[in-house]
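Need tokens for this chain, all 463 residues.
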Amino acid sequence: MAYVSRFFRLRKCVRTILKRVNMSNQACSPKVTHISDPRVCVIGAGIAGLASARYLKEEGIKFVVLESTRYVGGTWRYDSRVGYDENGLPLHTSMYMNLRTNLPKPTMELKDFPLPDDLPAFPSWRDYYKYIKDYAKHFDLERVIKFLHNVTLVSRVNDIWKVKYQNVVTGEEFEDEFDFVIVGAGHFSKPNMPNIPGEEKFSGSIIHSHDYREPFPYEGRRVLVIGAGPSGMEIVIDVANGAKTLFHSHHSEFSTVLPKHCISKPDVQEFNETGAIFKDGSYEDLDDVIYCTGFQYYYPYLDKSCGLNITPQSVTPLYRYMVNIYQPTLFMMGFVVKACQVVTLDAQARYATALIKGNFTLPSTEVMLEEWQKRADIVISRGRPFSEIHFLAETEDEYYADLTKESGIDRVPPVMFKIRSLSIEAMEDNLYTYRNYAYTVIDDENFVRTLDDKIVNNNGNNL
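Here are the structure tokens for all 463 residues:
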């Protein structure tokens, strides 16, 4: 009965979202007609923004990229600082010192720009950030980026996008008009904090993985890591090497055998001055806590006229996981989970560019909503959190095929999904050894997996 009740509550919630957003867009005509000489605003100079800039530039479409920092690369740029940058803006990067990609090289490459052969199968952030900078240089993208310009408001007025932005150094404010807006700012910068009772009493340190940079401050200490997503598991391994005791609060199943001083714990019930009481009644003294509890969707510059329902867990409704259904000249890039993120971003950038150029037209609002509703119903029927509306998972390759069928862009080869699937299996089997494998693409359907002769093995052992 509880499951049935949850099902109907979620479905009612989805219908309320659609009704509320629909009412605010009744007067809007969502059909994207061909616009001659369109002008495009790209928000962010990370991977999504750079890929979009490349394809818009190649098609001769007028555009500008607005980037709040003085750098390209978004979250892939390491910064030892936390909190705010020199201009008073929140630091968006979540990069930490020992991070390596958790997907192999073929699935981390942008189209027609391969990663260097001499890199390991799973490059470090240093190598991958250099790759991103080389990409921007190769396609001469930096000259079309307005660095140190922060977007403060995006609104839809009289069938045009008005974008306000500010020079973060001088404070000078601007407003320009655009036919299309591509939001490429990512969704890994606003920490999702669990707000556990007693946090204010705890005398030790509490941070979110967004602010985790290096393991050295945790050497010889009693550390609690909360969460077992990708960042949670990687940080557990990174911190465990030097911690006196590492407690890991989670409710996931994984095969990796961790060191004896790593102790699994259930959810935290509450903190006190010196430690945590867990929901099984046990208590542990702690020095430090690291929340690996994910991120929230947060776009304060998108006002109600944009026609989206934005919550910390989801952004809806989106057609093809990216097109704003009620204002389809607004694209939200990279709103996919459990996918080859870089490959997906590249495909989405090509799809958006093809639409802006007029190579194809979108279906009606009703058809786009039907596609979105089918995905929502699947999430609801499984009794899963509505945040999973952004999951591709086993439908990833089907998604790439759909993008190509509709827009005519080159298809992402099925081999990408196959590589990701096998690599994820290896990760789930052993977090210490999955990066020991190299994946070489043979053709669009096939690949081979071998031991990587450039590996830097995390635990010092051979397979």
